[in-house]
Amino acid sequence: MPSLNVDPAKCCGCRICEMACxxxxxxxxxxxxxxxxxxxxxxxxxxxxxxKIDVPVxxxxxxxxxxxxxxxxxxxxxxxxxFWMIDQAKCTGCGFCADVCPHGMITVDSExxxxxxxxxxxxxxxxxxxxxxxxxTFS
Amino acid sequence: MFQGGYIGxxxxxxxxxxxxxxxxxxxxxxxxxxxxxxxxxFSLLKELKAGTDPFSPGNxxxxxxxxxxxxxxxxxxxxxxxxxxxxxxxxxxSLCGGQWAPELKFAGYDGVVVEGRASSPVxxxxxxxxxxxxxxxxxxxxxxxxxxxxxxxxxxxRKISVLSAGPAGEKKVRFAGVIHESRAAGRGGAGxxxxxxxxKAMAVRGTGSVTVADxxxxxxxxxxxxxxxxxxxxxxxxxxxxxxxTVAAAHAMGVMPVKNFSKGVFEGIEGLFADTIRDRMVIHxxxxxxxxxxxxxxxxxxxxxxxxxxxxGPQYETIGLLGTxxxxxxxxxxxRANYLCNEYGLDTISTGNVIAYAIEAFQKGVLTKEDADxxxxxxxxxxxxxxxxxRIATRTGLGQRLAEGVRSFSQELGREAQRFAMHSKGQELAxxxxxxxxxxxxxxxxxxxxxxxxxxxxFREEMKDPLTGHGKPKIVVRNQNQYSxxxxxxxxxxxxxxxxxxxxxxxxxxxxxxxxxLYDVEMRANGIYTIERLFNLREGFQREDDxxxxxSLLEPMPDGPSKGNLVPLEEMLSEYxxxxxxxxxxxxxEKTLECLELGEFKEVVRG
Lengths: 139, 607
What we know:
The complex is a heterodimer. By secondary structure, chain A is an alpha+beta fold. In chain A, the strands form four sheets. A two-stranded antiparallel sheet of chain A has the order 1-8. A two-stranded antiparallel ribbon of chain A has the order 2-3. A two-stranded antiparallel sheet of chain A has the order 4-5. The model of chain A has no long low-confidence stretch (mean pLDDT 94). Chain A has four helices and eight strands, in the order βαββαββαββαβ. Chain A has helices spanning 16-26, 66-70, 96-100, 126-130; strands at 4-6, 37-40, 54-57, 76-78, 84-86, 107-109, 114-116, 136-138. The longest helix of chain A has 11 residues, at 16-26. In chain A, 19% of the residues lie in helices and 19% in strands. Chain A folds into two domains: 1-58 and 124-139, Alpha-Beta Plaits, CATH 3.30.70.20; 61-117, Alpha-Beta Plaits (2-Layer Sandwich), CATH 3.30.70.20. Chain B folds into three domains: 9-205, Aldehyde ferredoxin oxidoreductase, N-terminal domain (Aldehyde Ferredoxin Oxidoreductase,  A, domain 1, 4-Layer Sandwich), CATH 3.60.9; 233-435, Aldehyde Ferredoxin Oxidoreductase Protein, subunit A, domain 2; 437-496 and 521-606, Aldehyde Ferredoxin Oxidoreductase Protein, subunit A, domain 3 (Orthogonal Bundle), CATH 1.10.599.10. In chain B, 40% of the residues lie in helices and 13% in strands. In chain B, a hairpin with a 2-residue loop joins β10 (178-180) and β11 (183-185).
């Protein structure tokens, strides 16, 4: 089963992944519309785990998945490849899935009336392609 | 029409009246000079009255981006701040990476012009379309790190991008910089201009999008750039060491400044080598926004009196000026000094230069123990050096005099003491000993803001023949023009890893939808440089100001590989003027102005 892997120790916090994500999915540059994010903590102390200063946060493909369970329209389903995807034809944009996601990985596009989540770019994730540090890998 | 890259809007904030206006970004200027520095230089010349006191409400601060910011273009995180320098009295520009510039674009603006003076401390909060001038009395006196945290807490969003002036800027220390997330637009005193306007900080939150004109072409270019970056043989080393990787090679060439630029060999240099620093304190490699080259070396001092100090580790320039130039070989002291400068909002380069000057003046007996607040000043004395940083930032005791910069301070001490005052046009020399790499000397003498290395460093190109002036004017002009272009796009100097003139031009074209500017980059960049020259001419600067300290011109290098060498400035300068189309007094000819489409400024050269 393929997976999108994260190695925070390698992440340099450039947020290229966020910008690549918005470029690939939406054709614009807007990190806030990305389907993943980098948590940045550049104020470490002597007690800080230095491998977790910049941390990419991606959809963990929970199973069972709260987003899928919360969806009244039955729009969130698991593909054969192994990731949860939102069927845009069924999605009503109600945002329940976004509310229950424990990692804040779903965004609701109120203009289009749909929710979006990471779909591994259908097998060739843009975030991985542009990550300069190999902090994100797809296997 | 703007088709991509630019937003098309910018802000003009009048602090005297307390109002904010949204203006159209001037498309004509963007087509001519791209944005950033070119836009700022043109605006400064047009908008500022001749002879404006840099600390008066009449001075302006231009915080500008270019067409690249807010896209995924590698090395495109920076903003530029342009103003009249309180340190030199010239045009100045300084750049800073981080997140601020793209965030401003996402908020919907290409730039912010600040003018006037607030009656009490304020900060500006740009929250998409809502722009507020907010009270900052409670922030006054806070360090830059404290200011960022306080503003984020006040607004309740820890992701807000903040740039600020530290206590040194508030006190109008003439070389106070603008700090953003421990990166700095350090040189030239823009932080002091903020202080003079009672402007503590500018915070931005942007939720909008940036688009490019030709997405398919843009993505092709992106793929090419990424491939080229990964293939660049020097890339890996730069990632590992950042700019401090240059220390060993520079010292071997006699280029590191040692003890107020008095010599070229430093005992104990190993303590400042990149490997030493990496082992002792670097805990993380960090990047600016969308930068594939994490040159930032997040550092943590693990033991000793300064344990727990967190900073973005010392860079090459800081190691030179606060390290070797002050006689310090202990990397932790350099790091602590760097930290203090960041928090107080001081330029590390000018600070290290001014302190080294005071030490030499003390050793020569020009400065007394009483002048030095009872301290005995000596190179390598870490307590004295750290104490002087705090005195400068707070304008206490001797710090009150040092805060005026080395030109002003040396003038107080008399004619003899000016011989070893290491500045050009009042700007303190950066971390390149000009006698060991003489093209850098010409660069210092002709940079629009005095001795600033970042106006087109020639160090790498000079390695084969660093000691003679042969062919240097051409190299200097080419690099100065190239940097004018890069500072206007805005593309970081590290874009040389995997990118070049041609790829930058192609990115510009794909982003804006305008013609690829490659064929006339040289002419337009020369135009920007000439505009800056015109600004300085109008302020009274002349050929005699295009000079170097007597030490660089008259005292042969005492040791190291460049032993006996001097900077052959006069011969280089004449050739330089010719290449620029300036007359022998360094004034652009009317014909040159016409060729550069700057005929409207003929009055300036007629004097």
